[in-house]
Input
Amino acid sequence: MQRDVGSLPLAPAVRARLVSAGFQSVQELLETGPCGLSKEIGISKEEALEVLQVVRQECHGDATRTTARSGASRKCTALELLEEEQAQGFIITFCSALDNILGGGVQLTKITEVCGAPGVGKTQLCMQLAVDVQIPECFGGVAGEAVFIDTEGSFIVDRVVDIAAACVQHCHLIAEAHQEEDQLKALETFSVESILSHIYCFRCRDYIELLAQVYLLPDFLSEHSKVRLVVVDGIAFPFRHEFEDLSLRTRLLNGLAQQLIIVANDHKSAVILTNQMTTRIGQSQSTLVPALGESWGHAATVRLIFHWDNSQRLATLYKSPSQKESTVPYHITVSIPFGLEIASCKGIFRHTDKSVNYVFLVLLFSSLMNITGNTGMSPDLLIFCTFSL
Amino acid sequence: MAAKKLRRAMLSQELCERLSRHQITTCQDFLRLSFLELMKVTGQSYYDVRKLLCKVSRACAPKMQTAYEMKLRKSVNPSSAFLSTTLHSLDEVLHGGVPCGSLTEITGPPGCGKTQFCIMASVLATLPVSMGGLDGAVIYIDTESAFSAERLIEIAGNRFPTYFDSEEKLFCMTCSIHLYRELTCGSVLKRITSLEEEIISKKVKLIIVDSIASVVRKEFDTKLQGNLIERSNFLARGASVLKYLAEEFSIPVILTNQITTSLSNGLAIQADLVSPADDLSLSEGASGSGKRKSGCVTAALGNTWSHSVNTRLILQYHDLLTRQLLVAKSPVAPFSAFFYTIEKSGLVLQVCQKLLCTPLLQRSDGKDQTNLTWEGTNPALQTIRVRNTTLKDTFLDAALPSTTGETPSNTSCL
Output
């Protein structure tokens, strides 16, 4: 009630008039009423009414924030947060080593950034996650939908079809092995067509379209409340040219990051961004660092860097609030530490029919998971091999 | 979309006038401002500005489509999703051929066959759909004056002798290939940005830029300060225009690139292995002169450009007669290598030579494979073999089995 008039979100002209007329606190405004207000500061009655409505809305908001002890949208105790976090699902990537270093998978309500050299697999990971987020809950998934914002034009539908088919087959195998009621039921609606129709794609050609789309995201997500994943593939590409004014770029990127954090929190979805690598030329050496500058590094909560070491692909967890930094290799070919067995299995994996390939791989993996019981042995491949079988 | 005038974004007339007094006329200007600035400029309250922002965003945001709709649209027109290169194994690996709607880059040392590939592709694009072509015109932007019309006719006549049996058919084919000679960066960019109308009027189905590297490297000397940024800007702008054209009209775009000598130890990303004397790891060495000190030869134009292209095919020398084609970056294909030679009819894939093929490379069905999978690496740093190194390496080349990736030692490594 004692709030200063100058802090209200009114039009600047109206605010200036109120201040010059001598109004200081909100209480005074409410006491005056619309007709008195319009006479005193020289605005129409309708405008005065609007001003009072804004004032009441603000005060109501303030009041609920001060009187309510808990339950307001942004305030809760750490215990409540802990319970929420434990109940929350992860979006699995199907590569157990990667899931391990991430602490279970891609976390909801957080922004994860994937940086990497060209051709290392960032878009493949995004397409994989867009399919994985739709896995029904009885199989350990999140049963959500996905929004895919593509700025580079690298979203290939045929690839997603392959990944989706492999995922559906994998779930079928699990259901057949366990023969549980709810799993079989869930499988009836889980098919390649349904997966594809729940991936919402937007193709943004420049940074203005990207900004516009992110402004419209909250409305879109309220309409499609089942969305649990937002992918922005190529946040670097539209911002890396046409910007003479770097401070404008920093400001826009920060605004974008804030919008995405709000989206992630309010709608309980995970946000994945992919970034490029750029060469930083130092005194006597040059290194590859994530693009978009140092200040962008603050935007993401979790940062993964994919890179090459000769012909080995590695994933490094570069920044995370809850997991420690580590690097794991991931392969495209089959490579499980059982030596001999794989030499004989190689013949199977050379089958020309890709789906048969994948079935064998999955059988192998699920049997291995049963054997090893997730203890320390981490076969670090899996969906990364379906990308290129 | 971004340059859309605010008037067309359904904003009221007086608001538009008020904004234009502050030099805000397009959606782009509007969306760049922060909330406070918008409130000041429009003179409205926070909530109204929020609504305005949504309105303007809706005017320039892209349309939503589900992946399913995209798939349906593609399946309606399956033959137009790829340009078949008539190199069978390559097409198989690439799931059909050069993909439409994205950028494909061909890079390699001089004389390896990049221009030959482009000429061959232009012939293929003019073929009717029943023969695997796209039945359309070709726009060929030539920056090196390397295009030879006689070679074009030779390739067409020898590759498809039954189809091009009369002078008239050849004549028809050559009429639909439009050649532009551009010699500076600025003119190339201007040409690309003005292509939209030509594509529609001439029914163009393939765009070739041969080569984008030569103009860029002529004009931008990266040793000079500031040139690196300008070069990246030019390349990024060119790439985004070409991507827009490729997607809008669903046509393939082929670009050729050159090679450069990178003085760092190429394979390592952390360049702390570079000695302090080699402080020019990004500089253009003399292209094609082979290895120099500890340097190695990789694709030119740097790391950022490698991000912009969607598919990268590398041509390199293998021995005196044969050359090798590597699929180094592709969203649908694994790393693969093929041998080819250049003959009268263009590029011809070779079956793997017995001399160089170890038994492990044979498929279980007993056929020699030309499709060798190998452990690839970062496509921006993939080393490329040039002519004079191949003579040395041919006989000492124990490297070949290891690049084909099927030796037993690989299975035990994690």
